[in-house]
Amino acid sequence: MLEHAQAILNFYSGDGWYRDGHTFDYYSVWAFQFYAPLWNLWYGYEKEPYFAEQFEKNSNELMKTYAWWFDRDGFTNMWGRSCIYRFAALSAFDGNMLLKNSDVVNKKMAGAVRRIASGSLMQFLTRDDFLSDGIPTLGFYGQFMPLVQGYSCAESPFWLGKGYLFMHLPADHPFWTEKEEDIWESLGENEVKRTVLDGPALLFSNHKANGETILRTGKVTKNKDDLHGIWNYGKLCYNTKYPWESTPVEGRSLGIDSQQYVLKNAWDDKLQHANATFWAGEKDEVLYRRQFFDYSVATDQCWLQAVNLADMTVPYGILRADKLRLFYGEVSVTLGSYGFPDNGTSVLEKEESTLEGLKAKAIILTGKDYKGNPKQMAMTIYTGFSEMGIVHSEGTNPDSDKSMVIYAKMQRKDRYNAAESYVLISQVITKESAEPFSDADIFPLRNIVFADKYKTGAYGAFTLEFKNGEKKVVDYLGIEGRLSL
Predict the structure, then answer these.
(1) 362-417 pLDDT, tens digit each
(2) How far is 476 from 290, CA to CA, in rounded Å?
(3) Among 30, 114, 206, 239, whose CB has the most other CB atoms within 10 angstroms?
(4) CB 203 within 8 A of CB 194
(5) pLDDT tens by residue, 185-234
(6) CA distances in angstroms from 80 to 234, 323, 342, listed in the order given
(7) Is the pLDDT of residue 418 over 80?
(8) How many angstroms separate the CA atoms of 80 and 82, rounded?
(9) What is the pLDDT of residue 53?
(10) Is the dihedral of CA 445, 449, 454, 460 positive or negative?
(11) Residue 196's closest CA among 74, 70, 322, 14?
């Protein structure tokens, strides 16, 4: 028992999270953060009090932020392996309430937890495609084969039973007696709450404007041919209302993936995917990471193409200001939006030029999801990209059979040309209504002030000036010393 306990404790990375293999995912909560409290009750408190104290401390550390992991409706994000377990991620709350000293109980959080738990259940149980012949499907919502993994089987979905563990709590437990609480009511209009967890390299933001929670991750390594693993862990963003889409059908030959950069060298025309994401943390509300294309420990990083990521929140989503790090100049790069369920979608294109001469393009999609709920998404590009478009697909979106992905593309023809932009600036915003975005939402920037004489982002920091008066400085210098995996 001691040997196993010490081994498990050493998987702990801080902020309430344990490492699962090379990465972090829901196993950290529906395994470590449920079974450890159970072990405390059955063995640890009596036989190994040191370990019991540590497991209890780690569970309470998770509870400091875990309620914000879910969105305003209580939705669970589709991220990491075994998402086929759906709302099993709720089990960490129940595990905490098993402890002698439970923060959920002591800090009167049980009412908020019950509201989240009910919302996560309803996320799935309200859909008529959730069951097939009375059995939960092999998918996230309905049947969705891109989600299924090598160890998945017909019984796998029944791990969702962990979401019902609250049923063992007695009738007078605070989970049942406390008044339900919506913690999102504490946020101001258009406020974005950001939670930065450097230990597991996770940043999740809660967007009051649309009720969505967006996750950005780091410390990710996958085999370069493991597209399934990259979809699960290596996308730029994971959104509770826009679960990840596998490679869209029309995007396969074009090298387009949702919420991913895909690179193609001119000399061999082979697609390279970002299979490693290093974490450099947040500075002045800008998150810095680096993604390597076709990463391998056998190859020195000087011979690996990469992109330095710098992204920040806006009320309805994420704005990106990323810088290519290339050793081979002649490349093309694509970037996809979230997958958008296509159940009758209208498409609108817009352009804007500010008084300072900043030019931008946008594509806006307005439609509805599988259940008929209104959806809207806009992708905007500024400097670095040369074109935009849409690809259609079928069978690659977990919500709906048909889907669409907006994409942007850049192409660099010269290896040495300081006049070509080094920086790719874009934005993806979403909302759960058909009410049009304002022009200020779609085109939030007034100007981009570069420090280099070429005005391309070749060197030095640059400043993003927003129309609302805010300014964000982006400076990649120094992230090399902060990268972690």
Answers:
(1) 999 999 999 999 999 999 999 999 999 999 999 999 999 999 999 999 998 877 77
(2) 10
(3) 239
(4) yes
(5) 999 999 999 999 999 999 999 999 999 999 999 999 999 999 999 999 99
(6) 9, 26, 25
(7) no
(8) 7
(9) 98
(10) negative
(11) 14
Q: Which residues, at least 6 apart from 406, have a Cβ–Cβ distance to it below 8 Å?
A: 336, 337, 340, 363, 365, 377, 379, 388, 389, 390, 428
- Quick one: pLDDT at residue 269? 83
Residue 316, both tokens: 């309805």
How far apart are alpha carbons 248 and 464 in whole angstroms?
A: 32
Is residue 380 within 8 A of residue 466, CB to CB? The reply is: no
Q: By C-alpha distance, which of 427, 485, 393 is closest to 237?
A: 427
HSE on the CB side for 456, CA within 13 Å? Answer: 11
Q: Is 469 exposed, middle or buried (0-12, 13-18, 19+ CB in 10 A)?
A: exposed
Distance, in Å, from the CA atom of 350 to the CA atom of 436, rounded to the nearest integer, reads 13
Better-scored residue on pLDDT, 301 or 94: 94
- What's the pLDDT at 327? 83
pLDDT of residue 328: 80
Q: What is the pLDDT of the chain when averaged over all its residues?
A: 95
Joined tokens for residue 174: 């605070």
Contact between 447 and 356 (Cβ < 8 Å) = yes
CB contact at 8 A, 247 and 305:
no
pLDDT score at 424: 97
Q: How far apart are CA 414 and CA 272, in angstroms?
A: 19
Ramachandran assignment for 416, one of left (phi > 0), alpha (psi -120 to 50 degrees), beta (any other): beta
Angle at 27 between CA 272 and CA 141, to 5 degrees: 75
pLDDT, one tens digit per residue, over 280-339 is 999 999 999 999 999 999 999 889 999 999 999 999 999 999 999 988 878 999 999 999
3-state secondary structure of 477: coil
Contact 289, 218 (CB under 8 A): yes
d(CA 278, CA 480): 10
- The SS3 of residue 78 is coil
Q: CA angle, 191 as apex, 188 and 197 as ends, to 5°?
A: 120
- Among candidates 261, 273, 279, which has minimal Cα distance to 323? 261
DSSP, collapsed to helix, strand or coil, labels residue 114 as: helix
> Which residues, listed in sequence order, are joined to residue 426 by a DSSP beta bridge?
320, 381
Q: Which residues contact 370 (CB under 8 A, 6 or more apart)?
A: 127, 129, 141, 142, 341, 343, 399, 400
Locate 414 and state its tokens. Answer: 């010269």
